[in-house]
Specification:
Elements (H helix, E strand, L loop, with lengths): L1 E2 L10 E9 L3 E3 L2 E5 L3 E10 L3 E15 L6 E15 L7 H4 L4 E2 L2 E2 L1 H11 L30 H22 L4
Antiparallel strand pairs: 1-9, 2-5, 3-4, 4-6, 5-6, 6-7, 8-9
Bound molecules: zinc ion (ZN) (2 copies).
């Protein structure tokens, strides 16, 4: 939480400080992720313009949680660079776009802002490593630890059949 009343800013003034932010564990796609450590130092800056405030929040965070393919712990490093504008007199109807939702009663909720920014920066696919082999769809074995007994025969057979079908459809070309 940063209290704007602790700094006196004239138009054009800029204030910058190091400010700890805490990111609580969050759920994404039914899986739980957490920052480790949960509290990290952030670089917080506020600039007063004639029309409003510009807030900037920068921090690096390390997150852990399940890999989307094998469910083993994955590690994600994020470099957050977030900016918010808050107009003193937003145009009617444009309040949501022209105000900072983290500013309330002269205080900026830097924890909530940092948490939202960390969630937004999560990769679409969380992987323990780029070439994670995932789990066997038949027996559930972690294929990163070695092949299971069922994988080669069942899966390869099915895919080969599908590929044959696909090729023969392409050869025939689009239906006239
Ligand atoms: Zn994995
Ligand atoms: Zn298997």
């Amino acid at each position: 939480m940063f209290d704007l009343r602790t700094v006196r800013l004239a138009v054009g003034d800029h204030h910058r400080e190091t400010h700890d932010v805490t990111i609580p564990p969050f759920t994404l796609g039914g899986l739980q992720y957490e920052a480790d450590p949960a509290t990290v130092p952030a670089d917080f800056a506020v600039t007063r313009l004639r029309s409003g405030f510009v807030f900037a929040l920068r921090f690096d965070v390390h997150l852990t949680g399940p890999c989307h393919r094998c469910l083993e712990p994955a590690h994600i490093d994020e470099s957050i660079r977030a900016e918010e504008y808050h107009a003193f007199n937003p145009e009617p109807g444009a309040e949501a776009d022209m105000t900072c939702e983290y500013l309330d009663d002269d205080r900026v909720d830097t924890d909530r802002w940092a948490s939202d920014a960390a969630v937004l920066a999560m990769p679409f696919q969380v992987l323990c490593r780029e070439d994670c082999l995932g789990l066997c769809v038949s027996c559930g074995a972690n294929l990163n630890e070695g092949p299971c007994d069922c994988a080669p025969t069942v899966e390869d057979g099915r895919w080969a059949k599908l590929r044959e079908l696909h090729v023969s459809t392409e050869e025939r070309g689009p239906a006239a």
